[in-house]
TrEMBL record:
The lineage of its organism: Eukaryota, Fungi, Dikarya, Ascomycota, Pezizomycotina. This is Oxidoreductase AflY. Keywords: Oxidoreductase. It comes from Fusarium oligoseptatum. InterPro entries: Questin_oxidase-like. It comes from the Eukaryota. It holds the Pfam family Questin_oxidase. One of its GO terms (molecular function) is oxidoreductase activity.
Amino acid sequence: MATPYRIHITPTNTGLWNIRQSEEAAQTVSETLQKDLEMPHHLLALYGTGASVADIQKAYDLRRPLQRPVVPQHQDAVENLITHWDRASKYLGKEEYYPDFLAYFQRAIDREGYESVVKTHLLKGDGSANDLFLQQPAIVAQALAQTCVHNIEGLDQLLLDGERLANPNPDPADMPSLLSMYEKVRTDPQLTGSVRMEDKSKIEDGIVQRAKDAMLAIFEQVHVEPDKPDERTAEMFHGMILVASSAAIHPPPHHVKYDFFLMHHVNSSLIYSTLNSQPWLSTADKVRLLEWKIRLDLVQYAARGCPPVSLEGIASYVPKQPSEESVREIGMRFYEFGDDGHAIKQARATAICHELIAIGLEGYLWPRLAEAIF
């Protein structure tokens, strides 16, 4: 049984590809994650797409030497978090307190269940939640702890203000299409000129300092209709794949190069289909989570230089070695790719978007997108 302290993956718990894994693979991924919980994104992506025991073990062995050593707990900090969570702000954004937040969330989840802890600490809407997702409580605890010690890069000035600006209208007009909002970002001279090569943080030094008002004016239009979270999730997922692929695919002699930041926004998109199916999340929770993802996609698009979105550019891509494989089969080539999991995650996300919520793209283009990733 999975607990806040123990990883236990079963052969049927494989995620959105909805495959059945072997008992041996389930045991291997459970044991490797129990040894080192810092690689769940890579190992679970391999496991959830059908990788073998050997593939999973090889990925673990390849990346294990690169993982950070365990940081010791500060017992006084753990006790402070448990007894005075309202004072947690002094530990936020500081990596050395990760094990302390982890211990706090493990105990809270053990006591209340991960659903209650997520709703209280992430979705409550108060100051504490604003400072801050499988059915594996230990991974939920890890995710929440990592969130607590992560640098926010000035995003609070954009995301919190953007939400406040979007909320006052009790009867807002329908949200514009997301591709039209990307185009608004791309054609706004203040936003397109806000990011410079010398900026250490393209968001904090660029957008926040030089184009905050212009970004907030677009954020103000982000309001997901309560009866359309599934529809808008599909649009967000599909749009992000178009954005990232348009930025990556260019005519010869240029090679396909996916932007590392936009890749993460594609890979994180698939969880929103899972969130929408959770009965313990209210419609308002699902809407709010999606709105924050959309705003973050838009700000990252601006931070990456506003590359034009071009369906024609994607359609013109010719794979070096065209094949008749399905999108899933192309994705399986990444089992032995040798990176730290980003490629298999993007292949998985592309296949899931194609199978579950594909809209607007001709069917023949999806294998082409998968080939481009490879």
